[in-house]
Amino acid sequence: MKTLAWKNHTLQLLDQTRLPGEKRYLCCTRWQEVRDAIRVLAVRGAPAIGVAAAYGMVLAARDIASAGPDKRQFEVQLEEAGRGLDGARPTAVNLHWAVQKQMNLARKTLSSHTVAETADVLEQSACATEQDDAEMDRHMGQFGAAELGRSRHPLTILTHCNAGALATAGIGTALGVIRTLHEEGLIHRVYADETRPLLQGARLTVTELMEDQIPVTLITDNMAAWVMKTKGINAVIVGADRIAANGDTANKIGTYGVAVLARAHGIPFYVAAPASTFDLTLSDGTAIPIEERNHDEVRRLSGILTTRPDVDVFNPAFDVTPHDYITGIITERGIIHHPDAASLTAFFRKEG
Ligand code: MRU
Prior knowledge:
It is a single chain. With 352 residues, the chain is an alpha/beta fold. It has 2 domains: 4-134, Four Helix Bundle (Hemerythrin (Met), subunit A) (Up-down Bundle), CATH 1.20.120.420; 136-351, Translation initiation factor eif-2b, domain 2 (Rossmann fold). The chain has helices at 31-39, 46-65, 71-86, 93-110, 115-148, 174-183, 200-211, 224-230, 255-264, 296-299, 341-351, and strands spanning 4-7, 10-14, 25-28, 155-159, 187-193, 216-219, 235-238, 242-244, 249-252, 269-272, 278-279, 300-301, 304-305, 318-321, 328-331, 334-337. The strands form 4 sheets. A 7-stranded mixed beta sheet has the order 6-5-4-7-10-15-16, sandwiched between helices. A 4-stranded mixed beta sheet has the order 11-8-9-14, with helices on one face. The longest helix is centred in the middle third of the chain and has 34 residues, at 115-148. The chain starts with a strand and ends with a helix. It binds 5-S-methyl-1-O-phosphono-5-thio-D-ribulose.
């Protein structure tokens, strides 16, 4: 299942809102279509929305260039498109990172190239971002499998939301680690939280794992404690949307609860995320913007009203797990054990 593909100046996005029932691709030829696809979660998952936004900037650049603007007009209009893409979802920093990367490259290229050449350079950069993302997943998979698979006994793992191929341009972050362990015969079973309200676990993680013949059992979110107590969970692995400089980690709502439960049961809790998910400008998780989504997502299940239509609702899409609940952050450059301000500073200083 390919999450996204760039073909003939068009960004094709697998419409994840229709999974698992239907595999249909959206064809985006304008940056506004990419923004809307990100907003409605047709494409979702931090790394995937970063890659989609990088291509969105290419669509914007081509569209703006076709009107024959001067370089200043081109830059101003591209900045406007960048703000539109960046504003589609607030929590995953990969989106901001990808837009800024494209914008900085455009400014630099414009100083010595035409607007049309600049659009070409942005296209090459978006393709490279996609390839890099796939490469990073492979590295995370290897580091994660080496860490978790040390005992060489098949593991029972619990995961939350979808941090798989559908959330990236590669094999996934958390599911990339699980896939790598599975290739080595080291997965006994994966328990997938269904992930209310939008069911990314039930719809997406289950689909990915079953298609790869990795044993998976679906549970509702409120079963996690009992499953930890009774099913011999060896580790929890989740993805991340933004990691602050002290290791506090924003991920899908419910992740924090899973981390607290893992601590209570003495189960190691791992986060898998590429460097583009770290936001070292934020000293801790309190400043991470948390997206609040439409209240009908909670009032309804797959479109069907399950409560009173006028009930008050709180619908944060993410929560922040304090760093001291995290055993290790698996990155494409290695593992940060017991993440905190000091270990992150040392890790990023070493890595440059
Ligand atoms: O709202 P979503 O589906 O975009 O949320 C996705 C998550 O929370 C993922 O766990 C995270 O983006 C990591 S994806 C590799």
